[in-house]
């Protein structure tokens, strides 16, 4: 289970393409945090990841996290809680960093590239504010990764952006600027599926040379998905019955992307709704409809098991004033491009391994097959293979 806690939708930054923060949003009260704990005590009994998101979740402050983390750790230990946070790091300080280290909370932040390029998209001084917080987090040995959002403009500088992350040794995740059902603010920044697909192909090729000095989480997840035949990150799994986002006022939604959208509210933590009650709401039934739509319309796609039609939020559209399901994730073309390439390279790798195995068997029955770093074609120009990436711990 994944519980996303949204302490506030407020944010001190003003990113040009952002549609998920509101300047006037209030901060979650202690009563609401306590309601969350009491609700979860009798909700589900399975391992749970708690992700703090926003807006900018660090606006909630040290006391907020000290209180809620302490209660989760002591009273919800049967959920074997794991933690994560997505923050711009502007409000990071030694006190918060020390607390996060106590709970081993990995940090996701946002940086679109070098200072000048980043600040054009995210606002003046964004880069310096974030890097200052990053240095504090690293001083306390916290694990920090960055989401880099590619827009219509920045995708033209993909080489410079990747080189920046490589030279800095920063782990990164790629996010395409998206149109949103919540706001049209990002429409002019959104990249089309073919652009996104070509970006991912470029990054895959580059990553195969540097996977020992940085992580490119998208490629890691995609390779693992193809190998395991099962998606391993939210975009590529049926998350609609296992993810719950809690807004600042205690309202429950299917995902943080839907927070503050009344038509997607499925409950309130103060009411302690049951799992069955949440699943029978209009919003959850719509998402179930999306799952069924994927099963029917993607059944002939070889990638269906580890793609699952992409993100349902991206696919939902308004029709006659109501939200409806009429397509899969619009980035389907991009997903096919990168999945096809990974599948092709993985099959080449396996073919080579079995050819080598046959040669060894012919010579000696005492053999060892190592489908790993050493086992690649002699003419390979890449340091790693997609199989190496898929087998990373």
From TrEMBL:
- Keyword tags: Iron, Iron-sulfur, Metal-binding, Oxidoreductase, S-adenosyl-L-methionine
Q: Which cofactor does it need?
A: [4Fe-4S] cluster
Q: Which InterPro entries match?
A: 4Fe4S-binding_SPASM_dom, Aldolase_TIM, CHP04083_rSAM, rSAM, rSAM_sf, SPASM_CteB-like, Sulphatase_maturase_rSAM
UniProt-listed SUPFAM superfamilies: Radical SAM enzymes
GO terms, molecular function:
iron-sulfur cluster binding; metal ion binding; oxidoreductase activity
Positions of the Radical SAM core domain:
1-209
Write down the top EC class of this protein: oxidoreductase
Pfam families in the cross-refs: Radical_SAM, SPASM
Q: Does the keyword Iron-sulfur apply?
A: yes
Which top-level group of life is the source organism from? Archaea
For this protein, the Enzyme Commission number is 1.8.98.-
Q: Which NCBIfam families match?
A: rSAM_more_4Fe4S, rSAM_pep_methan
Q: Member of which family?
A: Belongs to the radical SAM superfamily. Anaerobic sulfatase-maturating enzyme family.
Q: What is this protein called?
A: Anaerobic sulfatase-maturating enzyme
Identify the species of origin. Answer: Methanosphaera cuniculi
